[in-house]
Amino acid sequence: MADDLVIENVSIAIAGKAAVSGVSLRVPAGAAIGLVGESGSGKSLTARASLGLLPKNAAAEGTITFGAHSILEMTPQELRKVRGAGIAMIFQDPMSSLNPVARVGQSIAQVVRAHEDVSQDAAAARAVALMDRVGIRDAQARAASFPHEFSGGMRQRIMIAMALAAKPRILVADEPTTALDVIVQKNILDLLDQLRREEGMGLLLVSHDLAVVGALCSRIAVMYAGQIVEEGPAAEVLRHPRMPYTAGLLASTRRDKSQTRLVSIPGAPPPLGDRAASCRFAPRCAQVIDACRTTPTALADVGHAHAARCIRAGELAHV
Amino acid sequence: MSDIAIPVVSARSGNWPLRIGLTGFAMIVLAAIFAPFVTPYDPIALDLANALRPPSFAHLMGTDHLGRDVLTRMVFAARIDLQIGAIGVALPLVIGAVVGLVAGYFGGWVDAVLGRIVDVIIAFPFLVLVIAIVAMLGPGLVNLYIALTVVSWVLYARLVRAETLALKKREYVLAARNLGFGHLRIMFGHILPNAIAPALVFAMSDFALDVQVGATLSFFGLGAQPPTPEWGLMIAETRSMMLSAPWVVIGPGLAIVIVSLVVSLIGDGLADKVRRLDG
Amino acid sequence: MSEPLLSVEGLSKNYQGASRPALAGASFHLAKGEILGVVGESGSGKTTLARCVALLERPDTGRVIFKGEDLTALSETELRKRRRGIQTVFQDPYASLNPTKRIGDALAEVMLVHGLATRTGVWGQVAALLDQVGLPVTAADAYPKSFSGGQRQRICIARALAAQPDILIADEPVSSLDVSVQAQVVNLILDLKDRLGLSVIFIGHDLQLIDFIAPKVLVMLQGEIVESLAGASLSEARHEYTRALIQAVPKLETHAS
Are B141 and B85 in contact, with CB atoms under 8 Å apart? Predict the structure, then answer.
């Protein structure tokens, strides 16, 4: 498909240390895909790589294609074009990506003009329309305000308006609501969902929060220590997790008041680098057997378009 | 049951500027301490028969206009010049750190008063102020130390104050207050060790600067007095022969450059170490 | 009924230049061994409340009566001796430990300052504290930089316990931790409460989590306590804001629910 974002077997090393290993993921046009993981799981790097936005000390292998473009092989100039028209990204902290001394209407209009040959007045009008589109009330007047005059949630809306200004086919949202309060978070998630449906945009939603991703996405990929460890339809992954890590994450967010303690996963995620071919979750896994520590793992189909990276996925289906 | 793997981090992985700097500095200090054993010559006694000899095996850096071995005088001069650097840094560092810590920690009028004093002193050009104070008090090393201290403590105070202001809002300082620790314990045990790093790094470049200022003042006759061997004074005494017998000024000049270089390396290395401890 | 361990009465705090008070007339009681939850979004005043109760900030008005004594009436010097009774675990584990102090020294310092240990006996107590929070004794020799966020939070808890407090204020202690580690730290605090008879004020923004932890939950909005949920389930929340909070949280439909 022309507008699909396809990540194939991508590995990324930061300063020589493996951070992402062999990740494959497809974001079809119009679909919402969730990428879930904890800090250091490689989820943000993967998301950034799909826009060619890797840090200087990163080395990436594999292929990322968007339509006819091969992202990892493009020059910075070529990337800039694709980033506007094809793929756009929003981040956790909108303040650091907004120009603090520019009026927000101007910032948005600038993006419009970078991608379309329109007059300044037309671009300004588009900016107001976009602000209106992302639910900023009284957009005409608010366009003249500066970023610091907005709340965190409103700034995130402005970032979304800027991203939309280039009419992207894919929107990558990296923890877009993590810094926000829950009520504001819900509004932003609703907005993203609405825009995806109305614009037929593909959405790659990156988050540490399974519930956030589950609320919006049709498919979910779970990352741990640089690998995708489980991938499938959202309902399947959330209801019938086949990888003990996913099951553990789900269990640890459960607030069952009949219990006196939360369910916890022992240990901590491994640091960057030295990453085994065998199961990387084995040291923390309650279901671990000797073979887990020696057998190389692969993301294997478990049925219902659902795959898990666990040699015991078959036997643990009932867990 | 818990995350118990604790990586043991070795702090000394490949900090070569610090290693080279410290090694070089140690060698210079040892040479200065054991100066009489390093060279066979007397640094002060005249030997007019051997005046202005070019470098040879007997006199590796040649002799000066009074027949004294230049290398010998360079080594003996290190005693005074290193002392100028050390005292010229230590006194301002201690005074500045305490003042900066007090001003930053307590804030309010204490900070305001100290801030004005600092502003006034910083407003004067450094060297001009040092020379003015020494000229006022009279030539000599003790007065040089006084002048250096009066002028440069303010820089240390500024550095430590800025760090203290940032650190006192840190949660670990709040925790220390919460734990019922007294002001002195919080200031010296918890803030100062974390606030002092930029001042220590600066101290290293200041050390080099002080050695140069000491040499400069001696050159102008305001520091060490003849026949004391001191690098700046050595250059001053022999500068008229610079063109016919360049070794007489190359020796002490080189000594100043090497000490400055070695100390800067230590400064760079320290800065690097500080960054790692924070990470 | 016996006198509560802590009574907070009408606590208010106004920061210079702010448009509204950060804290407006907060009152509650805390009994020995009780765990009280405080929930609120950013800017709701929950951290100001924590700092005023621990007297890390002086409230403008109101009283903090701890063991029958009004702490707000004490001078800084008198207060210092009583501070160890109310300890805080802060949100950011990376800013909460002095980077230049070894863990063992940081814990020992607390006990030595308050005369809770002798110079010879202190290291045994350090080892016991580390064990209590699930860290190996070898942690005593390491600097904070060697530890992950979850481990640092355990160390902060150990440091608070070193003061042998009556009350532990946990101010968003798990908000900055990895999801898989959050439950460990929450469980540790619950274990310690049971084992040591500690009273705990657990502050957070995750209503469901706070509700799980504490039988009584205070909901804060713009500096005020707008609702107190005691022994009730969340579905019985009355205040419009509390209900909005509950509504807004994305639900996980897992096979277990």
Answer: no
Residue of chain C nearest A240, judged by CA positions = C255
Taking contacts as CB-CB distances below 8 angstroms, the residues of chain B near C181 are 3
Q: How far is C239 from chain B (nearest CA, A)?
A: 33
Q: What is the CATH number of domain B27-42+58-278?
A: 1.10.3720.10
Residue C177's φ and ψ, nearest 5 degrees, are -100, 160
For C104-118, how does the pLDDT look when each residue is reduced to its tens digit (9 = 90+)?
Answer: 999 999 999 999 999
| C156/B9 Cβ within 8 A | no
The three-state secondary structure class of B63 is strand
Q: What is the CATH number of domain C6-248?
A: 3.40.50.300
SS3 A178: coil
* Overall average pLDDT of the C72-101 stretch: 94
**Residue with more model confidence, B97 or C232:** B97
Q: Domain limits of chain B?
A: 27-42+58-278
Against a cut of 0.90, is the pTM above it?
no
Are B179 and C184 a contacting pair at CB < 8 A?
Answer: no
CA distance C105 to chain B (A): 11
Q: How far apart are CA B174 and CA B197, in angstroms?
A: 21
State how beta strands A306-308 and A227-233 pair: antiparallel
- For chain A, give every domain's residue range: 95-167, 240-318
In this predicted structure, the answer to whether residue A173 has a pLDDT above a threshold of 70 is yes
Report the interhelical angle of B197-219 vs B70-106 (nearest 10°). Answer: 140
Joined together, the tokens standing for residue C164 give 């042998």
| C-alpha span between B89 and B78 (Å, rounded) | 16
Supply the pLDDT for residue A80.
Answer: 82
Q: Which chains touch C (3 or more CB pairs under 8 A)?
A: A, B
Quick one: which of A304, A300, A265, A301 has its CA closest to A285?
A265
**Cα–Cα distance for residue pair B52/B46, rounded to 1 Å:** 12
